[in-house]
Amino acid sequence: MEGRESALHATLTRFYHLAPYGRALDIACGTGETSIYLAKKGFSVEAFDVSDVAIRKARLKAKREGVSVKFKPLDADRFSFGVSRYNLILNFYFLNRNTFPKIKRSLKSGGVLIFETYNEDHSSVNPSFNPSYLLRKGELIEEFGDMEILYYCEVSNITTLVARKP
Fold first, then answer.
1. CB–CB of 37/9 below 8 Å?
2. Which of 72, 89, 94, 104 is the most exposed, having the fewest neighbouring CB atoms within 10 Å of its CB?
3. pLDDT over 90 at 125, yes or no
């Protein structure tokens, strides 16, 4: 893996074990790398992405890797997050602020959120990037501050939060 995908994998491998094993949700899963990784580690994984093409690729990869993941071609606004459903939720390089309360509701008590995406400093790296998809400094702390913050870092143009629901 290269670039963003290897950084994403580094964050995942560093923190996934903080969550109790069970059900995991991968928001905006792309071609399924993180979903497949978690399935190999014993999680029961649901994953969605708005791209039908990405979901088809993810399903093929999972089949090739011999793991089962429930991949769904859906937009985040249409996904039914449920209540107290997941032990682990991943949100990598995707930002839809409408999902914040849904994420909190759908985590089980003791469940872990791993959230990593671009912040407002990304504008200097990629000026054409839509600023509405960039986090403000401290925004994840504001939104998820009622959870136990296990790790928080704003480095360069990337913000990472790992938090546990009480």
1. yes
2. 72
3. no
